[in-house]
């Protein structure tokens, strides 16, 4: 028999989920800059004061949506990695990149929330960092495994960038050389640049076979980080 406390906890989870879903619909219709707690409350038939007990401010609701989006994207990348765990490093890399693209195409408004224009007046707190790092950590892991196994190709690194590369190694890739760390950051930025260009229309009238183009581009990115 469920306790009153357990029932209240389940009710809170259900209401929180309903608030987030209503907020995502508002993102799709109005964009993140116009997200309004009052509008969400009206859609759900709640008074604003009741909604504030779940999310005291617009920024807290935005943060929850951002973390959910990053976690959903990260989960897609991790599942893709695990599905081809025995494949060659380049194939694992490509699978993860294609999973990120697939997630973005299926969740365009959530992708825009985390990789689109900054929301005026909002600054993401440190609580978003863990979720935001998930895709990057998957890619780092593939390069690290290759480094420990078949090895990485030699990568050039200008002397002026070596201190930056050493900082990156210390910050997030202690098993790798500075050359690989710098290449990884560049590839990570280019990956989401490719996805964003497709999602936000910059490839219109430029790239027709986008799936083939994307696979070719991310395979080149795999080579750029030293994967053989």
Automatic annotation (TrEMBL):
Origin superkingdom? Bacteria
**Which InterPro entries does this one have?**
Homeodomain-like_sf (IPR009057), HTH-type_TetR-like_transc_reg (IPR050109), HTH_TetR (IPR001647), MT1864/Rv1816-like_C (IPR025996), Tet_transcr_reg_TetR-rel_C_sf (IPR036271)
Q: Which PROSITE patterns match?
A: HTH_TETR_2
- Write one Gene Ontology MF term: DNA-binding transcription factor activity
Q: Which residues bind DNA?
A: 36-55
Which keywords belong to this entry? DNA-binding, Transcription, Transcription regulation
Residue stretches making up the HTH tetR-type domain:
13-73
Name the record gives this protein: TetR family transcriptional regulator
Species annotation = Streptomyces roseochromogenus subsp. oscitans DS 12.976
